[in-house]
Amino acid sequence: MAERIVTGLKQPLEFAGTSLKPSASAGIALYHGGNGTVGDLIVNADLALYLAKAEGRGSYQLFATTLRDKFEEKANLERELREAITSQAFAVHYQPQVSLQGGKVIGVEALVRWEMAGRNVSPGEFLPVAEKAGLMPALGRIVFAKAIRTAAEWHRAGIDFGRLSLNVSAQELREADFACHLLDLLKQEGLPTRLVALEIVETVMLDDENTGIGLTLKRLRKAGIRLELDDFGTGYASLAHISANEVDRLKIDRRFVRDIDKNPANTKIVKAIIELARGLGISIVAEGAETDVELFWLHDLGCPAVQGYGIAFPMPSSQAEAWLATHSLAPHRTEAIHVA
Q1: C-alpha span between 233 and 211 (Å, rounded)
Q2: Any domain includes 315
Q3: HSE (side-chain half, CA atoms, 13 Å) at 72
Q4: Are residues 39 and 170 in the same domain?
Q5: What is the 3-state secondary structure (H, E, C) of the chain?
Q6: pLDDT (tens digit, 9 = 90+) per residue, 118-155?
Q7: Are 284 and 273 in contact (CB under 8 A)?
């Protein structure tokens, strides 16, 4: 019955010379007896409807008890996340980026970490919850403050870290005072704008026309902050945005780097992105390199820089500082890989 209703509502409607294409999603909960109330039944149906919408709309879903468990789990995580933001209970780890030509450190990416009740919560678990709950601006400012303070300390100590890369979401960029806040923070901590880059995903580039994001990014680039396009090749950015006037660096997504020596398609994609960036005068870095073989192939394809477990894991500030100090005294092993 649900399938007939959903299919029937998808039929085009002609109105005033225009074809309208409606659709509907349905959530279904069945009463099996027991102590449940009508209110409980409606809540269960609503949870099933939520799932139907989340999985692409225009479909139906049946309620299951596991669905309520997942909903309660997310609600609890959101509550814990709000409390963690209030107490600023987040750490920042740093993952180095190095040149494949000589092993020189060209940057470090700041990555948020959260430990809750003795458990390390994966960013892939809590960041989507933060984004859905509208908490990214508050979370982002905590990460920015801690990362910029650390980088400023390294800068004053003469530790070469290249450039600090900060991930920023569309929610944060829509904040009216985002640019002012970031520039004031850099001035307050004494970190030059030339040592900072913002990483955005491709969908942010498509979102700038109606939200003022484009103006914010232009203002920050004019102030000297670099702009990097993260996870390149996995989104929908128009090539009109991929120019030296809009972006300073492209980051090749890890899924194209993984098993590059075994996957001819990945090899062609990475080579095409490298040639595109070189032709447009944009720098490039490959993410997710984990093995010597992947590092060798990236070097052989002409990729200038890399970031990944094959170079270094994300580290707390103290470990990152020691790694940077040690690394500046000796060439990186990628040179040996190339020679071999």
Answers
A1: 24
A2: yes
A3: 7
A4: no
A5: CHHHHHHHHCCCEEECCEEECCCCCEEECCCCCCCCCHHHHHHHHHHHHHHHHHCCCCCEEECCHHHHHHHHHHHHHHHHHHHHHHHCCCEEEEEEEEECCCCCEEEEEEEEEEEECCEEECHHHHHHHHHHCCCHHHHHHHHHHHHHHHHHHHHHCCCCCCCEEEECCHHHHCCCCHHHHHHHHHHHHCCCHHHEEEEEEHHHHHCHHHHCHHHHHHHHHHCCCEEEEEEECCCCCCCCCCCCCCCCEEEECHHHHCCCCCCHHHHHHHHHHHHHHHHHCCEEEEECCCCHHHHHHHHHCCCCEEECCCCCCCECHHHHHHHHHHHCCCCCCHHHHHHC
A6: 889 999 999 999 998 999 999 999 999 999 999 999 99
A7: yes
Same domain, 55 and 119: no
39 shares its domain with 110: no
Question: Could you read off the pLDDT of 158-215 as tens digits, one per residue?
Answer: 999 999 999 999 999 999 999 999 999 999 999 999 999 999 987 777 665 556 888 8
* Residue indicated by tokens 């859905």: 132
**231 belongs to a structural domain:** yes
Q: What is the pTM of this model?
A: 0.80
* Shared-domain flag, residues 172 and 40: no
Give me the percent of the chain exceeding a pLDDT of 90: 53
Structural domain span for residue 173:
89-339
Give the separation between CA 162 and CA 219, rounded to whole angstroms.
Answer: 22
Tokens of 59: 């479909």
Q: Half-sphere exposure of residue 65, counting CA atoms within 13 Å on the CB side?
A: 3
One domain for residues 8 and 103: no
Answer whether residue 83 is part of any domain.
no
In this structure, is residue 81 part of a structural domain? no
